[in-house]
Design goal:
By secondary structure, this protein is an alpha+beta fold. It has helices at 39-53, 63-69, 75-84; strands at residues 27-28, 31-32, 59-60, 88-90, 97-99.
């Protein structure tokens, strides 16, 4: 009988997901070329935008649109995607946004 745990075999990673790809190929000259249609790729982009454009410990008002416009003209779509993905939260009155403290 053979033991299924061979010490000479490399261990398998515990996380079956493929490693995260870099999102730099989505940008040209610091601007987002297009918002990805594929959900998984768009999520990678949204995580990147949330982490690079918004601090966890502060609230934002119109600065959300201003920050998103620095990378793409359709700031409304990016803002909506960030909110629906849970990376940004919005107060009930819609005036203030915060980056979510949950990690992915």
């Amino acid at each position: 009988m053979s033991d299924s745990t061979d010490p000479h075999q490399p261990s398998q990673p515990s996380d079956p997901r493929p490693p995260q790809r870099d999102v730099s190929d989505l940008f040209s000259g610091g601007r987002l070329v297009a918002i990805p249609r594929r959900v998984a790729r768009r999520e990678q982009l949204l995580v990147h935008l949330a982490e690079t454009l918004f601090a966890v410990d502060r609230g934002y008002t119109d600065e959300v649109n201003e920050a998103l416009r620095t990378v793409h003209e359709d700031c409304s779509a990016l803002r909506r995607y960030l909110i629906t993905s849970g990376l940004l939260t919005r107060t009930r009155d819609g005036r203030t946004y915060r980056r979510s403290t949950t990690t992915r």
